[in-house]
Write a structure and sequence with these properties.
Layout lengths: L7 E5 L3 H13 L3 E5 L2 H11 L3 E5 L7 H9 L8 E6 L4 H10 L3 E4 L4 H13 L8 H5 E2 L5 H10 L11
Parallel strand pairs: 1-2, 1-3, 3-4, 4-5, 5-6
Helix pairs in contact: 2-3
């Protein structure tokens, strides 16, 4: 029995191992996942696929996620696209920069897949209400459970996606 997709995601991260691991984990959670390895490839995928949500790493060589986010927000037909930033940077100033660039969520590393899925579902299916203190709702973090994820991936007969650069 085929299960219904939870939505179309685009994951933009320069780290190949992070892309593979997150993409596979999110596929196991029921999302359709495309990947991109840099800002330019991410922009092309956004234009081509029009995903429900874009997950952007903030720090990437050759252009960061904030640059791509600003480009998305500056494009009329993409302005309402849900964008989630992932970053190891968790200082209030980092969160403000993400918010000012137009991110819907800012998820700090480390995090669990369960936390990310919860926030993705919330962002995709719930109306976005602007909180009184935007930084309070904006920050979502927690411990990374790599062992649990690896056990889950190993116990599920699925092949890792082939990542092809341009």
């Amino acid at each position: 029995m085929m299960r219904r997709s939870r939505g179309q995601l685009l994951l933009v991260d320069d780290d190949l191992s992070v892309r593979r691991l997150l993409a596979e984990a999110l596929r196991l959670e029921g999302y359709d996942v495309d990947v991109a390895g840099d800002v330019d490839e991410g922009w092309q995928a956004i234009e081509r696929r029009r995903p429900d949500v874009v997950i952007l790493d903030v720090m990437m060589p050759g252009g960061d996620g904030l640059h791509l986010l600003r480009r998305v927000r500056g494009t009329a037909e993409l302005r309402d696209l849900t964008v989630v930033l992932l970053s190891a940077r968790a200082q209030p100033e980092d969160l403000r920069r993400g918010q000012q660039a137009g991110a819907d969520l800012y998820v700090t590393k480390p995090f669990t897949i369960e936390q990310l899925v919860w926030h993705l579902d919330e962002a995709m299916h719930a109306p976005v209400e602007r909180p009184v203190d935007p930084l309070e709702r904006f920050r979502h973090n927690g411990p990374l459970s790599m062992d649990a994820l690896m056990d889950r991936v190993a116990s599920t007969p699925a092949r890792l996606p082939m990542i092809v650069g341009r």
